[in-house]
Specification:
By secondary structure, the chain is mainly beta. The protein has helices at 139-142, 165-168; strands at residues 7-10, 23-30, 43-47, 55-58, 63-66, 71-73, 77-86, 94-105, 113-119, 132-136, 145-153, 156-160, 174-178, 191-195, 204-210. The chain has 2 domains: 7-105, no CATH class; 113-210, no CATH class. It is elongated, with a radius of gyration of 23 Å.
């Protein structure tokens, strides 16, 4: 097992994908847990390796399941990891493999930040909580108008994005122009982003600047 922030788990043989409740699993429990057996109350997330795979990469946003079986994505944090082979027809119904490993899952490198924006009827209309009042060129058929903006991480939309240095200087207006594709470059002084307003509200890549 290797990695810092993003963890790669490798095994000598190929994994058996889960089918009919039988197969290999990776349990993730809170970093303070002293055990992380399948079905334990300490289990936070379960990752199911692909059938015949020889490794798996765990990072923020990796699709996992909760202990109750609901779909989820892996969040940043300290965990202990336990690999197991599960078979409900056996006694006990699982076989633990390789011991318990402490790991840290964290954000690494630059994270894509998306912008969401919607039009306000006037400059006096308040914005919802966690949204910021601003002005943009796109409302009113590009004549410009008042908007509410918020920024969000592409891999964790509920995590608040810290204020950028430019925002902390109090720049009040945001300018945003649509890009033809996410591969299109922005002019100097503009930042690549994503917003809801392009393509008739369907959303698309943009170039943004404040000033």
């Amino acid at each position: 097992m290797t990695g810092t922030g993003t963890v790669t788990v490798s095994w000598a043989n190929t994994a058996q994908g889960i089918s009919g409740g039988i197969g290999d699993t990776i349990q993730l429990c809170a970093g303070t847990a002293t055990s992380c057996d399948p079905g334990s109350a300490d289990v936070l997330f379960v990752f199911y390796p692909e059938d015949l795979s020889t490794s798996a990469t765990l990072t923020v946003g990796t699709p996992v399941s909760t202990a109750g079986g609901a779909g989820a994505t892996l969040t940043a944090g300290d965990y202990v990891l336990q690999v197991a082979s599960v078979n409900p027809t056996n006694t006990p119904p699982y076989l633990l493999k390789d011991g318990l490993f402490p790991i840290t899952i964290s954000h690494s490198g630059d994270r894509p930040i998306w912008l969401q924006s919607f039009e306000r009827t006037s400059g006096e209309e308040p914005c919802p909580r966690n949204w910021s009042p601003s002005w943009a060129q796109w409302p009113r058929e590009r004549d410009g108008g008042f908007v509410c903006n918020r920024t969000m991480y592409a891999d964790a939309e509920d995590e608040q994005v810290p204020d950028s240095p430019r925002a902390s200087r109090g720049a009040p207006w945001l300018q945003s122009v649509a890009r033809e594709s996410s591969e299109a470059t922005c002019p100097e002084g503009w930042d690549p982003s994503w917003a809801q307003w392009p393509n008739d509200g369907a959303g698309g890549p943009t170039c943004n600047r404040t000033g």
